[in-house]
Write a structure and sequence with these properties.
By secondary structure, this protein is mainly α. Helices cover 72% and strands 0% of the residues. The chain has a domain of 235 residues. Helix 5 runs antiparallel to helix 12 and helix 15 crosses helix 16.
Length: 361
Amino acid sequence: MDVLLDIPVLGFILQFLVYLVQVIGSGHIAPIILGLATPIALGALCGVMNERSGVVNIGIEGMMLFSAYVAFMTALFVHQAFPAEPGALFGATPALIAGVVAGIAAGMLISLLHAWLSISVRADQIISGTIINITALGLTSYLNRLIKPFDSAGTFQSFRPPAGLVNLPGIGWLLEMFTAVGPIAMSVLVLVIITQVMLFRSRWGLRTRAVGEHPKAADTVGINVIALRYRNVLIGGVFAGLAGAYLTLEATGSFQNNMTAGRGFIALAAMIFGRWTPLGAFGGALLFMGSQAIGVAIRLAPPSGDLGTFLAGIQQAYPSIYNNFFTGLPYLLTIIVLAGVVGRSNAPAADGKPYEKESPT
């Protein structure tokens, strides 16, 4: 092994892989990966619910952003009207709970608009999503500058698992990854599993996939295509709203203009990477944001040996590039996925095609 590590290029790669195994196995970085992946995974679930029903939704970015603002402002107003100490469970307060509910409602409201434009009006679904993104960015930025909130309702606190649980050999880091987080991040795995099972092992899931593949055939056997598409787009809004609430009520405790920073588009890439399945999309979210977590790990626990010396030299010579590389890596991976995977992945056959009952085609 030491001989391989001395090989100029291969040695650095092997040292980096060993470092990743060590830092992830330590458990300290694993919850950060899940935290970074949470809004991506929830946004990808929103995309799965839409596109499995035959509705393209590139407005996830705007839905998340608008929900983040509504969740933050609702929590702030409730906190100012009814201040309360953090509760024993996740530090929850009435303000934070109200903010999550408001964020979900906001996501469903914007999803209803997208559903109306895409399903009833039969407008171009790409344009509908683009309108949502532009409107959400402009409206939230304007309201944020107009109101200028200087206070905060706080954030949900992370759960502290027992030391004996996270110290279990082999699986301790994995248990810490899914437990040493806040309630919204903790719920992601549960939501992914439930959605996966329901989509592929239930009557509703069979009908959803039928509507997304061949709505005319589904209509002929008595499935209400329009109603099912509306229902599923609204369910997708729940996931987008929860993602927005996570950004302001669990991850940061504040709202910043354009704070989604392209996460909605990364969620679409994760959905495509996962071949329109909840579990696959969740894996894509972990992959994309795990690359950003590497930068966090290097700052918290720099590698030793030749690898550490090399990275320190790069940081000293090119500080700006070094500091921004890992932040931009998820976006680079998104481009690679969209360029290399899109052509090899088959979306639902009726995806993006408006359906008119009893139409000749």
